[in-house]
Specification:
By secondary structure, the chain is of the alpha/beta class. It has one domain: Glycoside hydrolase/deacetylase (TIM Barrel), CATH 3.20.20.370. Strands 2, 3, 4, 7, 8 and 9 form a six-stranded parallel beta sheet that branches. Strands 1-6-5 form a three-stranded parallel beta sheet. α1 runs parallel beside α3, α3 runs parallel beside α7 and α10 packs parallel to α11. The chain is globular. It binds zinc ion (ZN). The site of zinc ion has 5 residues, from β2. Zinc ion (ZN) binds next to β2.
Length: 306
């Protein structure tokens, strides 16, 4: 598929807004290269009407900036450079790596909830409401073609302080080299255009590591994020209680839980989520985003090596 993107005046305004964002965010986001080739992403719907979009984009950026600032202030260990670690991304030592869970020696029990295949009409906002109610921050791995359909939902996810990862454009299992590039790059471009987020987290569809997607992502310094607990909620026939059991029986500190907010009717996930969160809280777990989780491991490693 040939991809053409022509930048309209409004898009240029958006890009200018991004360029004007604070210096920390500028350093926190990975360098933004223009698409290596012209693109076909039809962004008309995303950028209409112009004034509303500018306001919305500013609001999403401001909320993201605020969360980054809070997170930076909350980190008390380490050098200044460590504090500037990517908010939406993985620390540099994890770039190009495949990660299933964090290895943490500390006493504090932490867990990262992740949601794949969105943004999705209905379910994503229900998940956001539950996360908000329990004051939990999570990580969402988006599919580009779903993001194109539901950019307004994606903006909410970022504005509410959750982390974002790339989950390809079409969710393919087989790709050639050219397709692998487009699947990841086109999704990254749209994530940036819709939310101002540049992420270095990649999750391969189906967890497949040998079809060229993970290899391309690693080459581009993404961290390939797997999981330590599979809820199996992608199986539409699964019961809510089985989802809860699948997650809790694999619970461990530093763990990464695989859930789905999109790609189908995920009502079982929505039903299971409050029970899962409440039980983790009972067991003394704190919820973190994937970048926060990786940063914790990096901080521990640096302390040990001093
Ligand atoms: Zn998926």
């Amino acid at each position: 598929m040939t991809i053409r993107v022509s930048f309209s005046g409004v898009q240029k305004t958006c890009l200018a807004l991004v360029a004007a964002a604070g210096s920390f965010v500028a350093s926190a986001l990975m360098p933004v290269d223009p698409p290596s080739e012209p693109a076909t992403l039809n962004l008309t719907n995303l950028f209409k009407p112009a004034i509303k979009l500018d306001l919305e984009f500013s609001r999403v950026k401001a909320a993201a900036n605020q969360r980054v600032e809070q997170w930076r202030n909350s980190i008390t260990q380490g050098e200044d450079e460590e504090k500037k670690s990517f908010f939406f991304s993985s620390p540099a030592s994890f770039h190009g790596k495949i990660v299933q869970q964090a290895e943490l020696a500390g006493q504090e029990k932490v867990i990262a909830l992740t949601f794949d295949d969105g943004p999705w009409i209905g379910t994503t906002e229900k998940v956001l409401n539950i996360l908000n109610q329990y004051q939990v921050k999570a990580t969402f791995f988006w599919i580009g073609k779903h993001l194109k359909l539901y950019p307004h939902i994606a903006k909410k996810v970022v504005a509410e302080g959750h982390a974002i990862g790339n989950h390809t454009w079409h969710h393919p299992y087989r790709v050639n080299t050219f397709q692998a590039t487009r699947e990841i790059e086109d999704t990254a471009t749209l994530i940036y255009q819709v939310t101002g987020v540049k992420t270095s987290l990649f999750r391969p569809p189906g967890g497949v590591l040998n079809n060229g997607l993970a290899a391309y992502a690693q080459q581009q310094k993404y961290t390939v994020m797997m999981w330590s607990a599979d809820s199996r909620d992608w199986n539409t026939g699964i019961s809510t209680s089985t989802i809860i059991d699948n997650v809790l029986r694999n619970a461990r500190s530093g763990g990464i839980v695989l859930l789905h907010d999109g790609g189908g009717n995920r009502w079982q996930t929505v039903e299971a989520l409050p029970v899962i969160i409440a039980e983790f809280k009972n067991r003394g777990y704190k919820f973190v985003t994937v970048p926060e989780l990786l940063q914790m491991e990096e901080n521990e490693n640096k302390l040990q090596s001093k």
